[in-house]
Amino acid sequence: MNIHEFQARELFAEFGVATQPGKVASSPEEAENVALALGLSGGKFVVKAQIHAGGRGKGTFKNGFKGGVHLCGTPTEAKDLASKMIGQVLVTHQTGPDGKEVGKIFVGEAVDIARELYLAILIDRATSVPVVIASTEGGVDIETVAEKNPEKILRLPVHPFLGLMPYQTRIIAASLGLTGPLMSQASKLFTNLYRLFIERDCSMVEVNPLVVTKDGRLLALDAKFNFDDNALYRQPSIVAMRDVTEEDQREVEASKHGLNYIGLDGNIACLVNGAGLAMATMDIIQHAGGSPANFLDVGGGASREQVASAFRIILADKSVQGVLVNIFGGIMDCDVIAHGIVEAAKETGLSIPLVVRLEGNNVEAGKKTLAESGLKLEGAENILHAAQKIVSAVKAAV
Ligand code: ADP
Ligand code: MG
């Protein structure tokens, strides 16, 4: 799960991670009031579009307005900038061509930046421990730094039981050239950020840029969080920050029914029981010359209702031109799947090709249910056969 930058700042405030003052606003008037309340005499403001994607500074709105991060000098200008961003669609290299609609903006203090640094904490899957990533090259994509100047990136593994040790915070600070008073600010910031990372079950936190201001402050200017979905049950305050309008609507719907669904951009939908089988099915669709529209695992013990909901989600997707059902009934009863398919297909008036491969527990009853349903569908004896059938049926239909 992801959150917005203004929500990340609430977490920073709670855990004592230094950041510049500011607040979120949903309308131009509110933006002006936030700027006024900041009471920066002679200071500057920053106005930032709030979307679940980075690269906002270099992004462009669909109405032609350039940039999702702007500096300005007065509350009236902040109001004017807000009116150009709220309700508009911002496209960045992370949003894809469709972009994301901006519902809220953040208005904060603009600071005079001396240096832009990079700092992240994430779980390293290879070593199974948290790792701190730091670089003097902040404000740009870390992927670019990794490609062009890999020597400028520090990777520091953290022992999960010991946590981030004081000597490690000094290693990171030194690698970023933070000395004297900045080193003590850095140690405090890194320690608090690490505590936040662990206590809130984050899988990633990225601060890009972490800045040194001309007046000698070390501040987190931007923040991106990822949370471990499997830990959300014990993080009610994080769940409360979820903004479903930022998520793939097919995935939101699927999560309501306890289905593991990930939308992709192909045209052949698959409905499968078991994550491994789902991956193999996607691979084999590709192998047969097709392109999967989703990953969908209905789980080992799905109910008839879940199967029907899964089918509805698939069929509501306009890019889907064919459906492949691949079920290996272990715990799962094939007849339960068959009833779910029939129910949903009848209700939605299925008009695209459907290939069903059923195998395992109670398969004969399942096949009989499908055969007697009057649905137009093709059976298949094995997974390769099934993939080839759906790929050619879709090609023939378009
Ligand atoms: P994104 O990564 O989505 O483009 P950032 O928050 O990193 O958004 O902002 C982009 C750039 O804008 C930063 O790298 C920084 O140079 C500048 N910037 C952001 N916030 C401020 C601020 N409060 N004061 C001055 N400059 C800022
Ligand atoms: Mg950034």
What does this entry look like structurally?
The protein has 398 residues and is α+β, with helices and mostly antiparallel strands. It folds into three domains: 21-109, Dna Ligase, domain 1, CATH 3.30.1490; 113-239, ATP-grasp fold, B domain (D-amino Acid Aminotransferase, Chain A, domain 1), CATH 3.30.470; 248-397, Rossmann fold, CATH 3.40.50.261. 37% of the residues lie in helices and 26% in strands. It has 13 helices and 19 strands. The protein has helices at 5-15, 28-38, 75-85, 142-148, 166-175, 181-199, 236-239, 249-256, 275-287, 304-315, 334-348, 363-372, 383-397; strands spanning 22-25, 44-50, 60-61, 69-72, 89-91, 100-101, 104-110, 113-124, 129-135, 153-157, 202-213, 218-220, 224-227, 260-263, 268-272, 294-297, 322-329, 354-360, 378-379. Helix 11 (334-348) runs parallel beside helix 12 (363-372). The mean pLDDT is 93. The chain binds adenosine-5'-diphosphate and magnesium ion. Adenosine-5'-diphosphate (ADP) binds at residues 20, 46, 48, 54-57, 69, 71, 108, 110-111, 113, 116, 139, 208-209, 221-222.
